[in-house]
Structure formats: structure tokens, C-alpha cells
Amino acid sequence: MGRTDYEAKPDEAVVGVVCDPGSPAELMESLADRLPDVLTDRVDAPVRWRLDVRREELELDDSGTIPIAAESRKWLQAEGWDFVLFLTDLPRMKRKRPMLAKVNLKQRAGLVSLPAIGWFRLQRPVRDTIVHLLGILTSGMPDGSTGRHRIRRRPTEVVSPVRQLPLDDQDADLYLVLSGARGWLRLLFGMVRDNRPWRLVPGLSKALAAALAAAAFGIFFSTIWTLADALSATRLSLISAAAVTAMVVWLITQHRLWHRPRRSIDRGDTVLFNTASVLTLFLGVTCMYVVLFAALLFAALIIISGDYFQSQLGHPVGFTDYLSIVWLSSSLGTFAGAIGSTLETQDDLHRAAYSRRERQRRERWAEEERTENDDQNPRSEAA
């Protein structure tokens, strides 16, 4: 059992970091070795820092929020840490702004919401955010005005979208939120990254099999060769875009991936989550298209001889001619793959397309809808 009083032994400060499984835990484990030195350099506190990283799913309360006040009391008492930080992949909003982090001074606790960090190169902004929170906790200043631990803006940002929002509510004293359109874009692409769209390729195995079967027919059918030879690159691009869009629309409609707000106050959140879903599916289906294209190109180059290909088209052929027939065949196969995706179960598609937290949110929505329907049915029967 460790210490419960930070002031009792100021030569060392132990920071417990409790991470959601998945991206938060993987990211924190990659930072854990270097972070103590960064804290020593940038936080004005006469201590030697030590981190204790734990991988455990953070519990949600009835409102779908991680209550850091209650959670920190539990962890600090059990582990004897000086401070506790929570790293989650749960996207949150505060005052209708994307929330990056929050701090509870009394409980010596902070929380970082990973989706608000953004799309790529997460290690540095996560490190800076953690340093910032611990600087606030050690200084005891809710405005974080002391020390050298301000969050640094990225090279691509003229002005950082991060804003400090001092509040004294039940769970925190200070919130870090994102402002403006860039802040919302950071959260949106962070949510898409957390969904890991590339996982959709193995998740749509039946759709990919249907697409391969249809596309393979295309590359061995001379009429497709003639048609592809007559189409311009612009028209082929439009066909491929239409194929990807058709499959995304099919997935959304057939597997009920579009969420409708039940209350007007939920409309903004619903638009955000639906947009993240659409972007996730577009990227995932595009990845599937690329895999299909590569497989067909390999098959076409091996099986279709240049002399026979030339005799069918009536002119000399080159690599670009192979690309054209594979391009058109991949698009036609993707249209067929949309139909094949009907064979996928809704649970399998949700596991492939969404992060664990997004699946929990959708399960919560479904449960709330069932509860509302159950409440309305007795009234309708009585009427």
C-alpha cells in the first residue's frame, strides 16, 4: 500500500494513469518511460516523478460520463497514489464544445479524452496535455497560470484551438475545450481514427468475397475490356466514387447505422456521431476497394497475355490498359459487394466499423429506445 498524502514525502510523486483498453492504453504505455523526465523538466515541482499505468475499462455513470470525482477516490484510496489521471477514448462535450480534458483539484485527478487530440501524431499532444494537467494539480491553480506546462500548439496551427474553461461543478474545477471549426474537426477525425476504419476490410469478408467474384468475371470478359478502353480516367473515377458511395449507403440503410435524435438537444451530438460513422464507412470501403484493386491487378497481369489483350482491343497495349480494365472491374465488383454485405450480421458490422466506446453508445441508444417504446405501448393499449 502506497502513500495517500502528497505532502508527506515531497521527494517523489506517484501518478497513477488508468487507461481504457485499446488505443488509450497502447498510447500511454509507449509514453510511460519518457514522461517522468518530461515532467521533471516542465513542471515546477521539487519531486521525482513515477508513473503507474493500469489498463482497465473506465465505468460510465447513468448519463454516459466518467465521474472522475468518484473514480479518483476509489483509486487513490486503493493504490495510495499522489495523483490519478484517466485516459479514455470516450468523446465528450462541455458547453457544446469538444472536451479535451478536465481537472478536479480536490481529488488530485484529471481526465484526458483521446478523440479530441486529433487524427495523427498523438504522442506529443497527449504528453503535453498530461504535463499541463499535472502542472495545474501541483500548483493548485485552476487557471493553470504557473509553471512551464502550457499546451503547445502544433506546427500546423497558427492559433491553438484549446481553451481553458474554469468551472466549479460537481466533477471538475477546470475543463480544456476546443474552440471553432478546427476544434470540431479535430474531434471528428479523432473519432474516426478511434473507429479504425481499416478493420472494416476483414469485417466485411462476405462482401469482399462477393466483390472479388463479380470483379473476377469482369477482368476475364472481353466486353469489359472494350468498355474500359473507351472510358476516360475522369469517367472511371466517377464510376469508382459511385460504387464506394453506393456500398456506404447500402451498409447504412441495411444495417441501421443512422441514428435519429429523440430530443432537439441531442441533435448536435447526433450529427457529429453520424458524420463520424459515414466517414468511417467511406474510409473502410475505400480500403476494401484498394485491396480488391490490388488483387485483380495481380491476377490480370499474370493471366491475360499481352498478345491476346492486344488482339481484342485492336491496338498496342501497355500497363495503363491493364489498369483501366482492373479499375472498371473493381468498381463493378464493389457494387456487387454492397449486395453481399447483406449477409453480414449487424453485430459483426458494428464490431468491424466502430470502436468499443461507440458500440457502447449505440447499445445505450438502443436500450433507451426500447425503454421508450415499452413506456408508450401500455398507454396505447389502454387508449
TrEMBL record:
Basic and acidic residues: compositionally biased ranges: 354-368
Coiled coil: none
Transmembrane segments: 204-227, 233-252, 272-304, 324-343
UniProt keyword list: Membrane, Transmembrane, Transmembrane helix
Keyword Methyltransferase attached: no
Renumbered residue ranges of the record's region Disordered: 354-383
Protein name per its UniProtKB record: DUF2267 domain-containing protein
